[in-house]
């Protein structure tokens, strides 16, 4: 077994391996506030192993944005366009100044 923490929250779970293959989730070591109400036996599925697991969705969105995968019929085309626009156009103000925030292009 190894421990795993998704990059989408602060949960910490054990992963059960058969050789080098992950075969499931083990003990829940820590739950973040967003997942505190979930039963321990549901955490690994919600975070990863379910078809709509949070980490899987995040990874798929990154693959789409990086151009490794096409946008399927997920309703994400407009979101992809906005995120690409935002990455190219939204600038963070100088952190050394007291009026921190975003500068939106005109």
Structure description:
The strands form two sheets. A three-stranded antiparallel sheet has the order 1-2-3. The chain has a two-stranded antiparallel sheet with strand order 4-5. The longest helix has 13 residues, at 77-89. The termini are far apart. By secondary structure, it is of the alpha+beta class. It is elongated, with a radius of gyration of 18 Å. The chain has three helices and five strands. Helix content is 33%, strand content 23%. The protein folds into two domains: 2-70, no CATH class; 72-106, no CATH class.
Write down the overall mean pLDDT. Answer: 79
Radius of gyration: 18 Å
Globular, elongated, flat, extended or rod-shaped: what is the shape? elongated
Helical content (DSSP H or I, runs of 4+): 25-40%
Unreliable runs: none
Strand order of the largest sheet: 1-2-3
How far apart are the termini? 52 Å
The percent range for strand residues is 15-25%
Q: Write down the domain tally.
A: 2
Secondary structural class: alpha+beta
**Number of DSSP E strands:** 5
- Taken in chain order, the helices and strands follow as EEEHHHEE
Count of alpha/pi helices: 3
């Amino acid at each position: 077994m190894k421990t795993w923490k998704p990059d989408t929250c602060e949960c910490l779970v054990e992963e059960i391996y058969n050789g080098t293959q992950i075969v499931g989730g083990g003990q829940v070591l820590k739950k973040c506030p967003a997942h505190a109400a979930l039963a321990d036996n549901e955490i690994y599925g919600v975070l990863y192993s379910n078809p709509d697991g949070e980490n899987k969705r995040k990874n798929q969105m990154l693959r789409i944005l990086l151009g490794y995968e096409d946008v399927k019929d997920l309703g994400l085309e407009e979101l992809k366009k906005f995120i690409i626009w935002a990455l190219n156009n939204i600038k963070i103000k100088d952190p050394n100044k007291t009026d921190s925030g975003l500068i939106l292009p005109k």
